[in-house]
Amino acid sequence: MKKFTLNLRICLCALSCVIFMAFSTQVVLDEEFAYLQKKLCEHYDSSREGKEIKRYELNVTNSGFCRYRRYFSNGKVEYFSFNLIKFSGIDYYGTDKSGHLFLRTKGEDVIVQTYNDKKGGDIDSMACYMTIPMKDIEPQDLSDLSDRLVKMNAQLLAQK
Prior knowledge:
By secondary structure, the chain is an alpha+beta fold. The protein has 2 helices and 8 strands. A hairpin with a 3-residue loop joins strand 4 and strand 5 (about 100-105). The radius of gyration is 21 Å and the shape is elongated.
């Protein structure tokens, strides 16, 4: 009887550890999504877009998508989106004062949509990177962003 209760206790402990670990992964991912959203919005450079951009939206969702939408003053809308599972790396071109952040994917995994364009109409296409204008970003911030994106990519792939 003692051996049975010992085995039962071991099984219950293992089961509770598995349950706690399953929920902790989602909490860690939510924190990573929030951090990424905060850093991208904090360093976004709206002055580089010029007066033709009325407003923008830059979102990292809980489902693992990075979305960037630009609204132009002439009514045109550009939309870029990709799943962080497809993330492959980042490149930054510029100085610590201003530059462009390239979020690269494994293939042509970035959805690019253009709406209300008077010259070209509505266009749907795919790309292998998303470009975001940045300002006042230190090399350490870029390194941290890259490390976190790689870690999030691995966690999202493990969940799938």
